[in-house]
Design a protein that fits this description.
280 residues, Nucleotidyltransferase, domain 5, two-stranded parallel ribbon, 7 strands, 47% helix
Length: 280
């Protein structure tokens, strides 16, 4: 089990002793149930052994609150496009504890679209960063349709299918299509996924009148999405916030930040708390 040496290393790097801990924050969900069980069990045991309060943290809310790990950070209210391998959401953030999902994916997440497209190309998992790396060397010259989903919700399953069919057709005509067009294909895939995300975000900003816009989640590390947010923000007069790379992917800091604000608000969990793979 790696959790014990990881916790020991965290204490050593932070330069603090276990006796200085005031509470134990942990991810309750959503996520992979096996990983959640390990984390929740360890947190409960550590807290019980030292008579410390427990603080359950919502994984996706923690991604949003990662913006408060460093300054400058967004002022309330703001919109946050939260994009990861399992989730794609536009969140209205009114306060540290008051968040409303305005739109979300109806099927696959944007991160899944990147990873599964990468699998079609023979790239290693997780393929998203590799697709991004190839895209930076290419030109988005292959057109793909944008899903016509009403409101602020997303759908990426049809887009994934269009990537698959396009590749099949091209490889039937040219078996070396992928080898000869990897960069341009990745650039085209990335361009369309990013445009889907940004078009919905622009719509959400127009509907709410909010011009403070943030990005969060693992896909927030994507260079195309980061550039698109900055460019769109400059064009529309937004104040934009993009987290440092270390705070994009899953990390302990975002759980600590979320736990800190719940601690200040006195929002604690019981020892009977259990992990949840799906948490709305």
């Amino acid at each position: 089990m790696n959790i014990v040496p990881v916790v020991e290393a965290a204490f050593a790097q932070a330069g603090i002793d276990k006796t200085e801990v005031s509470a134990v924050a942990f991810t309750r969900g959503p996520g992979l149930i096996g990983s959640l069980i390990v984390g929740v069990s360890f947190a409960k045991a550590f807290a019980l052994s030292r008579n410390l309060p427990l603080i359950e943290v919502h994984h996706m809310q923690a991604h949003v609150l990662a913006h408060f790990a460093d300054r400058p950070h967004p002022q309330f209210p703001f919109l946050c496009l939260t994009v990861s391998g399992g989730h794609t959401q536009i969140v209205l953030v009114r306060d540290y504890h008051d968040m409303e999902v305005l739109g979300q994916t109806l099927d696959d997440a944007a991160g899944e679209a990147f990873d599964k497209t990468g699998k079609l190309l023979g790239l290693d998992y997780p393929a998203g960063p590799l697709v991004d790396k190839w895209a930076q060397q290419g030109t988005p010259r292959f057109p793909f349709p944008e899903p016509q989903i009403p409101g602020l919700d997303f759908s990426f399953s049809g887009l994934k299918t269009s990537f698959l069919y396009f590749l099949r057709e091209q490889r039937e005509a040219d078996p070396d299509f992928i080898a000869n067009n990897m960069a341009d294909f990745c650039a085209s895939v990335q361009s369309r996924i990013v445009s889907v995300l940004m078009n919905k975000l622009v719509k959400a900003a127009a509907q709410t009148g909010i011009t403070t816009i943030a990005l969060a989640g693992g896909v927030a590390a994507n260079s195309g999405l980061r550039q698109a947010l900055e460019t769109t923000g400059q064009k529309l007069g937004w104040q934009t916030f993009i987290p440092a790379m270390a705070y994009c992917t899953d990390n302990a800091a975002m759980i600590g930040i979320a736990g800190y604000y719940k601690y200040l608000a006195g929002q604690f969990a019981e020892q009977t708390v259990t992990p949840v793979a799906r948490w709305g």
